[in-house]
């Protein structure tokens, strides 16, 4: 069977290269590159995307072997109806391998049409690396690469303000635009690029913060044979996402002229302040994902859909959202309720297998970022503990023991975190350590939580009780114990 590329499929329309994209991953392809395709189809945007890989190069080679083409499956509810559609995305013109073709990257910086710079380099990507140098081909970090690109552009146009860029980072961190600008300026100083360049960064360039929302489980490993047979070609870059999408971009109003999303049907908003959108999305959607993962996985389930449809866990998750997350948020209760219902419906998407194990990547820092603020707000507001969130935290500690029954769990987190838990559980399992000591050790670790959680009244005792029940009777029984009786 032939591979998807321009010879076997069709040559994509040649369009000016207006967007540089840091990230070849599933999410950006199913979200940004799809949106660019919609803009090209429905407006006079007429632009294509050049992709560079923030780390490594092997995926860029794969992208070029397919001439930037890939198949996107969008599956889920749209306007109240189930929709299962697929399309070939043609908006990527090429990928540049920064290790072998760095000159192409420098040349691109000098092209007049280039205007937008988009990134998704995970929560770990927007960092300063003092070892990076301008002479590196390429600098290691994403902001190092970006600063070099902006400097080549500044030089190519002799500092002309008309040739600045609009940066729209998609990393799920607070104030991603501001953070990115800060690190770029740090490099500009570190590399002594001069005041003129620094002024040009301020005056000619715009750094927008943005918030993204679309569930993208990625490559359809489970159904690849079936999908390949139906398509009639091989596609190593196939990607599956839900129908729902939201992109909130915090930036000046004039961006609407350059990114003409109005009237396209895209749920892309250009706003003055994205804080309310970010807080509710991260706390409700990501918070529920992260909180359900250790509970459901240890219960014996594998996917989000199974969890929210499960007789007992479905109730647990809904109550966790409705009674513990939502009441801590500012905003109209009706709007928050509508949003959380929509999220739970999206989790029930029958087309999408979203594996709990894939969500479990870096669960400790995710719990700290997505659920701990809720837990603290709840305690401050009610002077009681949110029992479901605390149960989730207890399951999380047990999850990091690395066993579901007799099966090993493929834990994915920083090696130091894994070693920390391994050492504690080793001692607890050998009875050298009481469970309460393990709990105190974990909750007191400021490197995990940026604070000492043992100071929260009653938390050590509640987590210890849960953990003893989980260890002795399993999650199912421990959950019943939590509710006092069996939950319906
Ligand atoms: N998949 C989703 O449903 C979804 C939805 C919204 C947001 N996100 C966010 O996207 C990220 C994952 O992206 P994906 O789902 O496309 O996964 P992916 O593995 O396909 O892509 C990850 C990308 O991040 C880059 N990367 C990883 N670590 C990096 C580092 N330390 N420095 C620089 N670059 C790095 C990789 O090179 C790759 O381009 C997560 O941070 C997640 O929060 C994902
Ligand atoms: O992608 P992660 O690993 O940071 O988090 C897992 C999910 O919570 C996340 O991917 C959501 O599906 C996404 O944020 C929805 O927009």
TrEMBL record:
Pathway: Carbohydrate metabolism; pentose and glucuronate interconversion. It is an enzyme of class 1 (oxidoreductase). PANTHER family: ALTRONATE OXIDOREDUCTASE-RELATED, MANNITOL-1-PHOSPHATE 5-DEHYDROGENASE. Residues 273-470 form the Mannitol dehydrogenase C-terminal domain. Keywords: NAD, Oxidoreductase. Transmembrane segments: none annotated. NAD(+) binds at residues 19-30. It catalyses: D-altronate + NAD(+) = keto-D-tagaturonate + NADH + H(+); D-mannitol 1-phosphate + NAD(+) = beta-D-fructose 6-phosphate + NADH + H(+). InterPro entries: 6-PGluconate_DH-like_C_sf, 6PGD_dom2, Altronate_OxRdtase, Mannitol_DH_C, Mannitol_DH_N, NAD(P)-bd_dom_sf. Residues 17-258 form the Mannitol dehydrogenase N-terminal domain. Belongs to the mannitol dehydrogenase family. UxaB subfamily. This is Altronate oxidoreductase. Its EC number is 1.1.1.58. It comes from Ectobacillus funiculus.
């Amino acid at each position: 069977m032939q591979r998807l590329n321009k010879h076997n499929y069709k040559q994509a329309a040649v369009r000016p290269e207006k967007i540089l994209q840091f990230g070849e991953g599933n999410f950006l392809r199913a979200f940004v590159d799809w949106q660019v395709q919609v803009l090209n189809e429905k407006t006079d945007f007429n632009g294509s995307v050049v992709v560079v890989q923030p780390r490594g190069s092997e995926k860029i080679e794969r992208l070029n072997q397919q001439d930037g083409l890939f198949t996107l499956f969008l599956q889920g509810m749209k306007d109240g109806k189930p929709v299962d559609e697929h399309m070939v995305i043609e908006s990527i013109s090429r990928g540049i391998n920064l290790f072998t073709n760095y000159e192409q990257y420098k040349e691109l910086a000098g092209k007049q049409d280039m205007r937008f710079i988009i990134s998704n380099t995970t929560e770990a990507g927007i960092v300063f690396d003092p070892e990076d140098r301008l002479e590196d081909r390429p600098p290691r970090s994403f902001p190092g690469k970006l600063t070099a690109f902006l400097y080549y552009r500044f030089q190519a146009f002799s500092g002309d303000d008309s040739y600045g860029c609009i940066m729209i980072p998609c990393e799920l961190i607070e104030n991603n635009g501001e953070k990115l600008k800060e690190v770029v300026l740090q490099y500009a100083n570190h590399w002594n690029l001069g005041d003129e360049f620094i002024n040009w960064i301020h005056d000619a360039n715009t750094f927008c913060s943005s918030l993204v929302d679309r569930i993208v489980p990625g490559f359809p490993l489970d159904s690849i044979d079936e999908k390949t047979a139906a398509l009639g070609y091989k596609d190593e870059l196939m990607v599956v996402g839900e129908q729902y999408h939201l992109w909130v971009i915090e930036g000046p109003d004039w961006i609407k002229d350059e990114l003409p999303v109005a009237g396209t049907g895209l749920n892309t908003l250009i706003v003055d302040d994205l804080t309310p959108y970010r807080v509710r999305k991260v706390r409700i959607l990501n918070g529920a994902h992260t909180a359900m993962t250790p509970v459901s996985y240890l219960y014996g389930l594998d996917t989000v859909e199974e969890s929210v449809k499960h007789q007992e866990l479905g109730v647990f998750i809904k109550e966790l959202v409705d009674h513990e997350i939502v009441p801590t948020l500012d905003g109209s209760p009706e709007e928050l309720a509508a949003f959380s219902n929509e999220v739970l419906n999206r989790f029930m998407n029958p087309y999408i297998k979203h594996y709990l194990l894939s969500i479990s990547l870096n669960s400790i820092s995710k719990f700290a970022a997505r659920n701990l603020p809720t837990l603290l707000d709840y305690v401050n507001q009610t002077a009681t503990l949110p029992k479901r969130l605390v149960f989730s935290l207890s399951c999380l500690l047990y999850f990091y023991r690395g066993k579901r029954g007799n099966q090993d769990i493929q834990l994915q987190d920083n090696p130091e975190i894994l070693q920390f838990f391994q050492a504690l559980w080793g001692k607890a399992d050998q009875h050298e350590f009481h469970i309460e000591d393990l709990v105190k050790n974990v909750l007191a670790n400021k490197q995990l939580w940026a604070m000492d959680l043992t100071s929260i009244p009653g938390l050590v005792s509640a987590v210890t009780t849960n953990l003893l029940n989980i260890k002795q009777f399993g999650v199912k029984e421990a959950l019943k114990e939590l509710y006092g009786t069996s939950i319906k």
